[in-house]
Amino acid sequence: xxxxxxxxxxxxxxxxxxxxxxxxxxxxxxxxxxxxxxxxxxxxxxxxxxxxxxxxxxxxxxxxxxxxxxxxxxxxxxxxxxxxxxxxxxxxxxxxxxxxxxxxxxxxxxxxxxxxxxxxxxxxxxxxxxxxxxxxxxxxxxxxxxxxxxxxxxxxxxxxxxxxxxxxxxxxxxxxxxxxxxxxxxxxxxxxxxxxxxxxxxxxxxxxxxxxxxxxxxxxxxxxxxxxxxxxxxxxxxxxxxxxxxxxxxxxxxxxxxxxxxxxxxxxxxxxxxxxxxxxxxxxxxxxxxxxxxxxxxxxxxxxxxxxxxxxxxxxxxxxxxxxxxxxxxxxxxxxxxxxxxxxxxxxxxxxxxxxxxxxxxxxxxxxxxxx
Length: 372
Ligand SMILES: NC(=O)c1ccc[n+]([C@@H]2O[C@H](COP(=O)([O-])OP(=O)(O)OC[C@H]3O[C@@H](n4cnc5c(N)ncnc54)[C@H](O)[C@@H]3O)[C@@H](O)[C@H]2O)c1
Ligand SMILES: O=C(O)C(=O)C[C@@H](O)[C@H](O)[C@H](O)COP(=O)(O)O
Ligand SMILES: [Zn+2]
What we know:
- The chain has about 375 residues and is α/β, with parallel strands linked by helices.
- The protein has two domains: about 5-180, Rossmann fold (3-Layer(aba) Sandwich); about 185-365, Up-down Bundle (Dehydroquinate synthase-like, alpha domain).
- The chain has 13 helices and eleven strands.
- The strands form three sheets. A seven-stranded mixed beta sheet has the order 1-2-9-6-5-3-4, with helices on both faces.
- Helix 4 (about 115-125) links the parallel strand 5 and strand 6.
- Helix 3 (about 85-100) crosses helix 4 (about 115-125).
- It is globular and about 60 Å long.
- It binds nicotinamide-adenine-dinucleotide (NAD), the ligand O=C(O)C(=O)C[C@@H](O)[C@H](O)[C@H](O)COP(=O)(O)O and zinc ion.
- Zinc ion (ZN) binds near residues 145 and 257.
- GO terms for molecular function: 3-dehydroquinate synthase activity.
């Protein structure tokens, strides 16, 4: 059997990330069935939780492979969009699992973007106190970020990802070919998390991105494969150092997110896509870093150039500190009632910073209401 592209090294919870590209005739250089068997072990029942947008394509293909392995499949379709990361959808999934004879030996297979991955992952973590699960990400964002690392969960109206758990998958299966049907807006949204890795811990990758955002926008297969591999390597490295965000190392993956999550929640989930909000949040964080004299103004210029080249939004006209600050106060990095931010030192290096004056946070938010 071929070797996985990347291993997430977490001791007994270690798992492979396969990065492959299926061919025009539907064949794949790596066999899904044997990879599944190798990572999951014995399985007679799978709960296939999938996004409605890929029901007739990727989800159907996965279902056929599982059926060919003599695995009984329970299909659960989730409506597309951020609002599906909800208590109501989770309850529907739990009840369908209960009604279909799901037991502790069943395996959840999440097929879709970050919404389905986070939701199905939490359903797996919580049903009968924990089922094995597999991630089959079908968006750029889910391939480079959400399918790796085991953060699962749902939103509450007042806070993103407020209920969830750390629950690692048995394997991550990335077929870059599935991106061919992804709408441009969702592809561009995923680019924010790709660029994030360059700023937080991989300066060489950031330089590569400066020259290659055009090829990525055209979905050049080699460029895509490089960006996905490099991003997954970054994520796997950070997660292996700090699986449950206890030492602070994993918190670097939250660069821009304190602002981003407040934008998403105050706008109403799904109005500003997660990656779009992350891009705007990265701009706010860079401005705050400059105001705190942690990084030079040139960092913001470099970051702006790459985000702009990727066609990401950089301003949020509705940005209102009075609305955002109460939501930010519920950020998961808050410690002893105080906000903490991931702020840049230089390209490729960021730090977790507490004691940030509120007036500087407000200035950073207000500066991103318009391009200046
Ligand atoms: N767990 C984590 O570590 C982590 C990391 C980053 C983001 N997230 C979460 O991920 C979510 C965003 O994920 P996303 O950007 O993948 O959004 P998404 O899951 O909403 O998918 C984006 C859109 O693409 C459609 N789609 C999915 N695959 C498709 C395909 N192959 N072809 C055509 N359409 C397709 C979906 O129907 C949806 O409309 C947010 O909820 C965010 O909080 C989680
Ligand atoms: O994996 C992580 O850790 C991240 O922070 C990755 C983020 O891109 C992602 O959006 C994550 O869901 C945010 O986590 P949260 O703990 O702030 O909800
Ligand atoms: Zn994110």
